[in-house]
User: Fold these one by one.
Assistant:
Number 1:
Amino acid sequence: ACKAGCHLVGPLPSSKERGDHLGDFLLPEGKFVVLSFGSVLDPYDFPEITDSIVRATNALGLKLVIGSRKFSKEHQLPEHVQVLPYLPIPRLIPSAEAYIHHGGANSFSEALRLGARQILIPLTTDQPIQAHYLKQIDAGLTLPPQEVNHNAIEQALKVLGNPEHPIHNNIARLR
């Protein structure tokens, strides 16, 4: 039992086993970016942010893989965009040019553990805390939701795509 003033600390869950049903999943060919807002939020519900990411990835010639249960076949998405209801994050992140996420505790810690080149866009609750820590350790980029536009995403992707940028040393060290 926890009495007032104590803190509970323990490991966060890993999504390692959650993709077992996607045994035949193939990584996208070429360079790609992953967009996921976890299991509670959905990129569909943040159209300004998602549209900016779609535009920026298209401008840079990158494919975009979106985790969403709300987009349907009726949505006219550009050819460079692939939508899946579930993303096998541990399989995608190591090969992705960038992992754009909301900064949930599990997404954040998994991104650090896997060595993701991450762009964190804190959307709600505890997510600004993870954004704060990501800035402190300089192992990824953060963008406040109100500052997200295709130019900001494009610039962030260029930083992460530059292997000479010092941020890559911190990502490797923390991995």
Number 2:
Amino acid sequence: MAKKFTDKDGNTFVEVKPWYKKWWIWVIAVIVVIFAIGAFSSGSDDRSSASPKTHKATTSKTKNTNSSNTASTEKKLSLSDDSFTINKEVDYNPNYNDNSWAQTKVNVSKVRVIKIKTKNYYDGDKTYPVQGIIMVHFKVTPTRDIDFYPTQGTLVTNGQQVDADSGNSDDFDGEISKGATQTGNVVFILKSMTDVNSIKNIRLKWDADYDTDNYDDDNSSKTYDITMNLNN
């Protein structure tokens, strides 16, 4: 109940409570808060159910069976300037030895015959298809200073005459000093090779020489000319 009071002049006044002291104001406020909380919770649930969870997309490489098999069976031959795909190869061990010139020991311990997948090959002058490679492994030990040039030699086999590929051969020849031992492969690239087993023998030719002040020394230069049968 509101309080009444009278002033000194006999006027009667009614004391009015501030709005925040009125109980029904707080009841309404509580009801509004309850409804607001309920509405917010309902809205959150609706948004949660309406928006599906997203997953970060991932990619994975699936191996192609055929490609994988091809890659696993392909064998490559990488040389200094080129790479070749090997179809088939055979290694021969002729164990050829020669010391007929200037007591220089020359050994050919291995000949590798390789049938390659046909490839266009540039020899520094022109481009043409090639089918085979022959690699000849040399070991040279001179008893005096010599010049020895198998990487500038030639190979003859099955009617083909091929110059050595010095760019793809090992850098082991040239000037070789007395008492040194040099080893390396000389590479010959063939235009035609039907099969590795078709190469039955090879003929190799290369030059060698040594310096001398003796003009009567007819032995100062040498052209090696050797033929090796290939069988194991």
Number 3:
Amino acid sequence: MFDLLIKSQMKKLILTLILGLLAFQTAMSQTPKEADPKDVASLDAIMKAVYDVISGDAEKKRDWDRFRSLFHKDAKLIPTGKNAQTGVIASRFLTPEEYITRSGPVLERDGFHEREFARHVDLYGNIAQVFSTYHAFRKTDDKTPFLRGINSFQLLNDGKRWWVIGIYWQAETADNKIPAKYLKNRN
């Protein structure tokens, strides 16, 4: 009887240790990666890092940990546009994780190189609003973009680094061309 009690206690102890280790491993794997200081040292650096991390040819894995490290814990990514069937203009609010889940497989399957070609910056204290005009290509050596639009970045400098608070964007369409003033830089 005593042996059965000891075996039962040992099984409980081993099970508890295993569950504790699994919980610790899960918690550690969810700890966000620290940003590379070069990626977040300046407004220019974080903008370049965002474009760089989502860009790549088809079948190229993206560094989603690097992507996550650029965003504030409460950040949102907000695509907006007109529904082709209904004509209704709407937005979706995504966390960086939801963006990775929804868009990551498409970016990696089809190839996507987003390049900034004009920027309008408004900076006050520790906040910045950046209208970043982009064009997108499927392959790094493509000459003609398949897509253009404007990303509206909201950024925060907490005194130590820059954070992406939000990216709100709209792609150019035949009936909504990018105005000429957003096709050249203004800082």
Number 4:
Amino acid sequence: MDSIAWYNHEWLPAAQATLPLDDVGVLQGAVLVERLRTVRGEPLDVERHLRRMQFGCELLEIHPPRGRDWIGLLGEVVRECASRNRAVFGAQDFSLVVIVTPGRIGESPRLPTMIVHAAPIRWPQLKSFYRVGQPLIVANTRNVPQECWLPQLKTRSRLHYYLADSEAAELAQPWGGAVLLDLAGNLTETSMANLLVVEGKRIVSPPLNSILHGVSLIRTLRLAVEM
């Protein structure tokens, strides 16, 4: 059974939900993204993910169509996408990916391109992470400085992550990864996750103004405070 995606207000087979070659997301890599997951078939932390998406859209001056707000519009779509794709994944939980670009070059008025689709979770990879951890190196490739764009933007412009993980591939270990430093040599994050260091009963994070505000990071810090 094929998964179903939402593309600019239309539901269609996921294989047809593609960016046009003249889309700014293809030509300039201007793509905002959120990836959340389901728990027992229901999407988790929808509003928190979409608030971050709304922040990115406001920064890139991408406006929601038809006078809607991003959280309301995409929240409805995310929940419906989960409902439409449960049968595809059976008893397994899955990811929901939200993509927004500024739209197509030459279009007037330019309307945003919006895609919401379902994707499998890489369970064997997560199983390995939970059981034995993930081997990491400190990459020579540095993270993008905030003078280029704010670290709080969740974007698909990830060439620096790709280069860092290519360095990590030399470890020749399954699912190895890389930690990126900033230009001053401080730890920031990996290509997949935020970085926390546990020292006794303390949890230490890189400064929040230098990293992506991960939803799992915020959840972890909240649970730590409650404990």
